[in-house]
Amino acid sequence: MKIAVCIKQVPTREWQPRLNDTKTWIRDQDASYEMNEPDAYALEEGLRLKEKHGGEVVVCSAGPARAAQVLREALARGADRAIHVEDEQIGAADAFVVTEALAAAMREEQFDLVLTGLQSDDQGFAQTGVILAERLGMPHATIIMEVQAADGRLRVKRELEGGWFQWIAMSLPAVLTIQSGINQLRYATLKGIMAAKKKEIRKVAAPAGLSARQRILKLDFPEKGKKTQMIAGGPEEAARELVRRLREEARAL
Questions:
Q1: Are 60 and 142 members of one domain?
Q2: Average of pLDDT values for 169-173?
Q3: Residue 217 falls within a domain, yes or no?
Q4: Considering only CA atoms, which of 95, 107, 1 is closest in space to residue 45?
Q5: How far apart are CA 160 and CA 5, in angstroms?
Q6: Which end of the chain has fewer CB atoms at under 10 Å, N or C?
Q7: 120 is in which domain, residue-wise?
Q8: Mean pLDDT over residues 190-200, rounded?
Q9: What three-state secondary structure class fits 125?
Q10: Cα separations (Å) of 221 from 12, 34, 226, 230?
Q11: What is the H or E stretch that residue 74 is in?
Q12: % helix / strand / coil in the chain, to the nearest 5?
């Protein structure tokens, strides 16, 4: 099975973001970066499918030169080779631009299965996997919690709202967007890190004339504030109301 896994480099969660002068994106020169966490789960799922059914795992990314860092990390975890559509403007681009760049580099590979994370930790639009499937002309399924492959077909479990799940049968080739928590992530070993230095990263130029469909007009930091609510009634009544608010309003339970 020939599996592609799309990964994105995003700012680390611990980094305190700083906006650029136009307040349309972060200041790249001040940021530290890491692999997008949902994409890490997609990579792990691809590696498990390869170990069970054979084949190869190819990691694909579209972004500036610094994105090679997460490609090397993916190779160290067990991916066989990488494709990097290198362009300095793609780092903050919308899904239409990213998928056009990725699809142009991926079509000739004729992958059996394409995996992406459900969404990115920076923009979080959950569009890339779906639009990429349309550009590649493949069927797709989203929010996948389990993947079973046999005889050139897939049986996948989708997460729905309200704690419900849905099983779908699909034929290959196909695109799946993977939900975080589907598996237990592995980490790169010293042997894997050394082996990654010898693995191929094929650099591809982005197609000419990429046109964005979405444009960020302005970014602002969330306003911090405190609000105290008093719950009336006796201890038992107040406790029930507190639990209800935590479950239904704050969604903390």
A1: yes
A2: 95
A3: no
A4: 1
A5: 23
A6: C
A7: 2-205
A8: 95
A9: coil
A10: 17, 21, 16, 28
A11: helix 68-77
A12: 30, 25, 40
